[in-house]
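Input chain follows. Return structure tokens only.
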Amino acid sequence: MKKILPHLLPILIIIALSIVVHHVWFFNLSPITYGDWTIDYAERSKELFSLPLIWKTENNLGSVDLGVFFWPLQFLLGLLSQLNLPPPLVERLLTLWPVAIITPLSMYFLAYSVFRTKLPSFVASIVFTYNTILIVARSGPVLLNLALSFSPLFLLFYMRALEEKKVGYALVSALIAFIISFSEIRLFYVLVWIALLYFIYHMLIIKPNFKTGIRIFSFVLISLSLPILLNLYGILSLLNLQSLTANEVFNRALFGGFYIDLTKIMSLFHYDWTGGKIEGWVVQPIPLRFFIIPVFAFLGFVLSRQKKITFFALLALLTIFLTKLNHPPFPDVYQWLFDSVPGFSAFRESGKFAYFMVLSYAVLIASFVHILLEKNKQGKAKIPVYVLISFIIFLFLWNTKPVITGELGSLYVQRNIPNDYLILKKFILEQKQYFRTFWIPLSSQWGIRTNNHPVVSNYHLNQSNWKEFIQKSKSDVFGINFNDRLLDLTSVKYVIVPLQDKKNDDDFFRFAGNRESYVQELDSSSYLTRIEVGTAKVLVYENNNFRPHLYATKIKESIKRPVPFYQIDSRFIAPHEYQIKLTDITAPFYLNFSESYDSGWKLRAGSFNWFRSILDKDYFLSDEHHFVNDAKLNSFYIDPRAVCNLQTCYTDEYGNTRMDLVLFFKPQAYVYLGLIISGLTFIILISVLIYFFHVFPSSYLKYTSSKIIT
């Protein structure tokens, strides 16, 4: 405690300042939402308290979950929800408050490990936290910012591990890297490259001693390989699916060139910053004061003699070069990296490199402040020096004005759930049968979604599963391109038109067309009936002929003609597993499953064991009878004689057969296998950390106290 007392004042100022700036996050419990960042109801959040799942079913028609790496955070969210904490409080505990507090503090300690003085470290914290690039970033992708908030801490312990050659610091950096990876795996990817670059720089410039190179590289392996082992539950499953890089995230064209400007990048000016409410994708002119920022950073480099400062200067140049995307100079380099370097194609937009440019600028500007203080130790120009330092601080703190006042909007203002959506939620959850709700043109952020009642967005289906069903005369992806058969086969019971909710930034109609036009078209439908559920403005239409989630037909399903179906006895175990009991089977039939077609879905006859499904290539029924039906969903042709050759079936005196089947998404077995390895790695990592810091407290805690904290 004595060691931390000298830092108590800057720490308290940093925390108090962040609480004031982000006061909406701290002084109320309203939902905080904007854009892609939404908050689930407790009913959905409680479902997240589970083992990691590679198939997600609560959105649209089901799909592989490329966000499976988020599982540790989702697990904690589910756990807190199971303890009946309100969702807005859980949102704050796990994301918003850590982003607000850890971001400035982690930068403060990283800077202090470089300069060993408090004021430059405080300036680095201000620069890193309150520049326009990160302020705008915190208004959207919260999990990315959560990962970013831990990045300075990772660099701190990683650098110390290489310098001090202590395993404990490498293990701490690995644990922090794991937190970063499950918050935003792409940011971890960037940090891996930065860490490797620093290792090379350390070996060539900081301490060029090649005799210790192998030992030092072992610390690099610890810091970077352990997070990979801890993420093996996701890596193995996606490799099995061949989806680790072969998916939509890695197969998109470059984006963002129209707003890239090298001058704005170097000045830490976000292209659409207005000093007030941001108008998305509108490029703004740069105010003159921003041109001062790169000058301070440049002076911090040229006037410094520290080797670490040179590294951060080189990192700034590299990240500026990458952030400029395909603009001159060397405009083709980014495209080459995008096409050639494994994993780089996840960065079709270059903004994530800008975050480490900001980090480098924070160190460089703090270096300039450090030099000013060092040159003025005698106090001859004390007042001008402190005036200049105050000006630098004010230059960045001024950016917080629209956040404090709420002018910036986005995640910096509180939201209120319209009562219509609460009424609708109650109406849907009271129904126990499985069905989907279909939202047109898009699903509201306040719509209830669960495994039993998934939410389907008209726009997203038009962009994916239903592309070929879009009428040639209707090029609008927001248009009504479905028909009765498509709704039936996809288990849609209700079609919903959301509010035009401008107050909560939940208004799709500003770009998706006139709301009344959708209402008129739905009212004229012959297969939908508008019903009253107690809402004032949210409109609900019922589709009476929807199919169950799992059902059987005697002939192939079709969207062109009605096909009689019959119910079967099925039980939901998890989004990736269903138990099916079939009775009175007299002839071959088709088993239909209203999830997006994926070859990973398999049928097992008889008892089921996930581990054996990995080892035995003939464990499931043959894939030759699994096919995509007219609605782009799963269908299986089942011949009871073939099934009974694989398991013991009961046949009564009338020739009726009874059989048990398990429908399983096979990549989930690799999730379980990876989870065992990841879990054991985590237990060993924590145990070894406890051992090191308990058995050798003097060597680690003394160093931590004297060089990192004090």
